[in-house]
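Supplementary Methods. Inverse-folding protocol.

Structures were first reduced to a discrete structure-token string of length 209. This string, shown here, constituted the complete conditioning input.
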């Protein structure tokens, strides 16, 4: 697990779960932990996947009902496919795109739309997205779930990890807390976005400009 700890400061210990007992006379067989990675966008995902892909069997989940308009959602989902077809990850990465479902975000965060970024609306948005990620991870037999949200310098990793940890307890599945922006992570995501020709949006999702 060394590379994940070094690059993303992932706080977990899964080495004991990753090794299967070999049959008599057989060489040891390594089972990579299964991780469902909630991906907010392709640029942020580029760095997180670079960190995590050597150590996990990853399904990248694109579920971000805060993104408006729907055409923007489809564009960003398409960029996730572009990233995965362009980059070379040591263990491969599957992509799961969930329908927009914007009404769920509107019902939850609508009363708080006038608040600045970083307030109650953002925490509710984290809870919505990570809740769905935890459910899908649990139902899909994953060992952990995580999110690329902490890559952004506009997102508070402590708040995101607090939400993720509480949701993990609710759903009975492991959560990998991280602050990917540390050690130049955000700058690396910008570099990778240029390398792969990725679209870098100018807003998170609910405030198009």
């Amino acid at each position: 697990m060394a590379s994940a700890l070094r690059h993303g400061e992932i706080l977990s210990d899964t080495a004991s779960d990753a090794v299967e007992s070999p049959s008599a006379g057989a060489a040891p067989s390594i089972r990579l932990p299964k991780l469902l990675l909630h991906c907010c966008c392709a640029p942020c995902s580029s760095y997180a996947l670079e960190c995590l892909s050597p150590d996990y069997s990853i399904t990248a989940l694109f579920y971000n009902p805060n993104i408006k308009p729907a055409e923007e959602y489809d564009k960003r989902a398409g960029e996730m496919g572009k990233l995965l077809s362009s980059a070379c990850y040591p263990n491969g990465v599957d992509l799961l795109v969930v329908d927009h479902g914007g009404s769920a975000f509107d019902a939850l965060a609508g009363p708080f739309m006038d608040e600045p970024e970083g307030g109650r609306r953002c925490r509710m948005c984290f809870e919505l997205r990570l809740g769905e990620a935890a459910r899908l991870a649990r139902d899909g037999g994953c060992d952990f779930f995580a999110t690329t949200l902490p890559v952004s310098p506009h997102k508070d990793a402590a708040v995101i990890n607090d939400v993720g940890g509480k949701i993990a307890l609710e759903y009975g599945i492991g959560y990998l807390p991280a602050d990917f922006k540390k050690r130049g992570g955000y700058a690396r995501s910008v570099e990778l976005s240029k390398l792969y020709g990725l679209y870098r949006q100018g807003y998170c999702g609910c405030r198009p400009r």
